[in-house]
Amino acid sequence: MKNLYLASRNNGKIEEYKKLLSKVNCQLLLQPETLEVEEDGLTFRDNAIKKASEVSRKTNNFSIADDSGICIEALGGKPGIYSSRYAENDKKRIERVLKELHGVKNRSAFFVANICVCAPNGEVVIESEAKCYGNVILKPRGNGGFGYDPIFEESSTRLTFAEMNNVIKDSCSHRGKALKKIIPDLLQIFY
Ligand code: ITT
Hints:
Elements: E1 2-6, H1 11-20, E2 26-30, H2 44-59, E3 62-72, H3 90-100, E4 108-118, E5 124-136, E6 152-154, H4 166-172, H5 174-189
Parallel strand pairs: 1-2, 1-3
Antiparallel strand pairs: 3-4, 4-5, 5-6
Helix pairs in contact: 4-5
Residues 8-10, 13, 39, 51, 67-70, 83-84, 111, 145-149, 161, 173, 175 line the site of inosine 5'-triphosphate.
């Protein structure tokens, strides 16, 4: 069985990938503690490639990374690629977004996930991107998930990501949809 390093330090993402990759015949390993990747790209794609290729090269194994975030229309697409850096923790990030949207009628937003898989030499072998549309609600709802989940109400279900169980979130989320598209490619490498 081939190894696949998950190039992420985000526990919320890690839990999602453990389930999303359960049908792929790989040994899922976590990014080495000592490996720090600077996210200085200007697009989700740049950052996803950077994370996956550095982890692949340093571990000499396949790796998978995503760069993701929430883009809010009334904020001109912010926080976007800066979603994880918008404040020091999830609670403060949510507070900042709700404050910036105070009194704003247009609450449209979407999540993006750009996934990149690299070969042991750091070469990009699979890429995928997907979005999930919804609205930023007025106050948090639900106890599950991570990040901005409690304030993002997904359009088709009218549930926040934090109100969904894993199966529902994976079926409609940016990450779930981006990963689903590349399952056949992953199965060609990991068999
Ligand atoms: P890694 O780079 O180590 O994977 P990170 O948290 O820094 O962790 P990103 O740079 O891709 O990852 O930032 C993504 C941020 O966007 C994340 O920290 C959350 O704040 C937010 N985010 C992404 N996907 C999300 C989801 O499904 N639910 C809630 N928030 C999400």
